[in-house]
Amino acid sequence: MKARVHITLKNGVLDPQGKAVHNALKSLGFEGVDDVRQGKYIELQLEDSLPEDQAEEKVKQMCEKLLANTVIENFDIEIA
Amino acid sequence: MKARVHITLKNGVLDPQGKAVHNALKSLGFEGVDDVRQGKYIELQLEDSLPEDQAEEKVKQMCEKLLANTVIENFDIEIA
After folding, report:
1. What is the pLDDT of residues A29-50, one digit of tens each?
2. Which end of chain A is less enclosed by CB atoms within 10 A, N or C?
């Protein structure tokens, strides 16, 4: 079973990495981009024996304890 | 219009960042995780005047030229 986790900065939190990418795109001549936000994407391969609802709860705990900084970041979990 | 880009390491490419996360999860007592792979997630806010098919082509060029290292990384584009 796979869990896909997206970790993104909350609205209003400055994103210097996204800004740098935005500026780099501009200087390469790419027009038409209004904003860039960069986040993290984590794929967890979970043991198949784990029931799906427990898996989601477990990954939520992992996000809260380690993967995301919930003061400035949101996370989103998909179990597949 | 929004473009969501996932950039992940190709299979077989070592992922020390993912390994570090995996070890950290283990030492926090999270069992049942077989593997962790970490990638990047980039959200691009594009001008709405751009037609959708052109947008996808443009973001593909951005990935090839700047966002992804296509020697070791795959990218995946979603236009929404």
Report:
1. 999 999 999 999 999 999 999 8
2. C
Chain B residues with CB-CB distance to A46 below 8 A? 32-34
Q: Which amino acid is at B15?
A: D
Q: Could you tell me how far CA B16 lies from the centroid of its own chain?
A: 16
HSE, side-chain direction, 13 A CA sphere, residue A41: 17
Q: What is the biggest distance separating any 2 CA atoms in chain B, rounded to whole angstroms?
A: 50
Chain A interface, best mutation among B41, B59, B73, B77, by max A CB count within 10 A: B41
**Full-model pTM:** 0.92
Query: Rounded to whole angstroms, what are the CA distances from A2 to A58, B27, B51?
Result: 13, 21, 34
Cα–Cα distances (Å) from B41 to A21, A25, A49, B30, B76, in that order, read: 12, 16, 29, 24, 10
Angle at B54 between CA B51 and CA B58, to 5 degrees: 130
